[in-house]
User: Fold these one by one.
Assistant:
Number 1:
Amino acid sequence: MTRAIAVGVDGSAESLAAADWAAGEAALRGAPLRVVHAWHPESADATVAQDREEQARAADAVLREVETRVSGRRPDLRVSAEVVGDSPVAALLREAERAEMLVLGSRGHGAVVGFLLGSYGQQVIADAQRPVVSVRAGTGTGAEAPHAGDGAGEIVVGQHGEPEDGEAVLRFAFEAAAARGAAVRAVRAWTLPPLYAYNTGVLDMADQAGGLEPMERQALARAVAPWRERFPDVPVTEHVEIGSAGQVLLAAAADARLLVVGRRTHRSPIGTRIGSVAHAALHHANCPVAVVPPA
């Protein structure tokens, strides 16, 4: 059975953009769309019962607006919608667990970070067991519509470490490209190692490869090779550049249709962190960003 594309909505312009993107993605993949609005009464006090009833009606109205919107635009799409009586984080994590991916809206970087990303989206992204796609409003985010400009329509994906370290993100990127008839740009950023990291093994590998940058190019080629073989119809550009991973990826994705990054979850006393590269992509990329958990 095909997993659904799930989208969390809250009535904002950002969540409407997320719903549009999720509907397009579901249509591309031949998957059903599941629309969820998480709402939980703040109080059981009888004196606020009427307010709760009004809130419940408002929650249902948010859901019906989105359902009507996507069904009107894509009448052949299988759509289900539900108001889930739970906290947003708990509800969305459950949805992500059983979906192919979860889609959320975000304002991205600005004076106020979007409600979905700022208040609970980052926790969902950090803990979800499936990929989470963050979509901004007003950036031409239709799933089937490429952006204008050189390299328009590319799926940009970041790769690091050994081939097995990037399996999940590369799989997601190539599947997304195949569904769209798009190209993949696989990006590997590198920096000069600190002095203490220079040892005989590193120097020998660099010498054999012809230098540090050729060594990085070979590493990327090894990681991408099995996915080239699995998706022979997907054009691939291998992009290796020295610099900060976040900056290199954002520059490469300036005209991308989708940016795919991995997730490195860090727990700290001040909350869950998703890693600097994913954080930079979510807050600064002009296109939808898919954050993929480790395989």
Note: The mean pLDDT is 83.
Number 2:
Amino acid sequence: MNDRSISLLKVRPEIKTTQINIEMSDDERFQNETLRPILKMQNPLFIAVFKNYIKKHKNSFYELGLEKRLQYIEHAVQRDVKFRNSLKGVVIGQFTVEEYELYITNSSALNKRMMNMVVKRLKDQLQLFERETLAY
């Protein structure tokens, strides 16, 4: 393992997840050991990136009701290819070389897991996307 890999692993938060066991699929293990800690660490960046996405799309998000806002998040991540690729980059850039080599063996399924986790994370923090008001 090189210095970059060691440094990346050191800064990741530890997450108490379901116990890793031999019956877990490789994808599930990757999700729990790699994706979850990276998503937790990158959460402030995901929030900032989505706020910027809202702004770039003329703040129409703020005119929506609760259910439509949840759909907006899902639609943005699942259907806007440029935005989805940007989110994937936020995660993949935190992989060690060894994790990247595992990732490329089944990137399609792992991308799906990754994006589902990002959608859930954004939806669970919906209150952070309220329109910011200026106090005078």
Note: The chain has one domain: 24-127.
